[in-house]
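Usage

Read records sequentially. Each one opens with the input sequence:
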Amino acid sequence: MQALKYIQPWKVEIAEIPGLTCCAPDDVVVDIAVCGICGTDVGIISGHYPVALTGITLGHETSGVVASVGESVTRFTPGDRVVVNPTYSCQQCRMCQTGNPNHCEMKMGTEAGVSYDGAFAGQYRAKEAFLRKLDDHVSMQAATLTEPLSCTITGVDKLAITHTNIRAAVTGAGPMGMLYVWVLHQRGVEAFMVEKNPHRYQFARNNLPPATRIYDDFEQALEQEYGSRDSQIDLVVDTTGQLTELIFAHLAPGGKLLNVALKDKHATLDVLKIADKSLSVIGSIDSLNNSFERAYTLIRDELIPADRLISHEIDFADYQDAFRLVGCDIANKTMAPLEEENCKVLIRLGNMD
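and closes with the structure output:
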């Protein structure tokens, strides 16, 4: 089979490797249908998020069909359509035991697309406990958004929203920004969105929750929403990593800034203001507290329009074109401007639905 291997920053290649078999009793081998491009994949390839092991197969937002199962597997049989939960946790280390399984100390060697061979490949070897069977009406494509949506739910949970009479915003209209604005909408919080890129702006404008407004400038948005460019805001989710100081300056007393951007960028924050204004600066990554199952339920029940947020599906042979759509120009070893409307871009690995 073929797999997309990470060699070093700006060097990835399709390699021919043997097909997979079940090595442990609870193993399940999945024939991959589609796999989504995540910001983590882009960060690994570009060198901006240098966490992957050399030679690892990239990709972790994936769905497919069960090919074979280990001898102790009881919940799945060959032919089952499944979505993969790539966030491994051992449930035994200190992080798992204290409620942070997304930071499991045993992740090295188990994190899909980082330290364990991922799903930009013909097959993926999973554990039975980290698979979810798909309902018949849920498409393979929509299912790939379960993992990023579970990360979104985890982040929103961390915000501990107690009422909906708040001023809120989401910056960045990429896949994560769109998922955040939709999850907030489901929680009763109507956030406005900020996106400077005209292509992302246009896609978002056509796929936002009802009555959600979008702007191309944060302070202009404050003026339009609340009457002044100096207005304060209660809650901001920043998916860009570019606006931290500006957002911080506009937080109202008790305000919360949630950063989910994996960007190697520094910001200077006034610690006196954090204390004096009772501010919260929060980070979030991966999923925990059954958020994967909750994410799947939102997709299954069509409360999150997963299919609408998928803008492209590209064949595996053309993976460089797929990454170029999201601004990662592998051929020229550079990040490049977006050239057309897009949101979630999928790579098709197999011909099954």
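Summary fields computed downstream for this record:
- The chain is about 25% helix and 25% strand.
- The mean pLDDT is 96.
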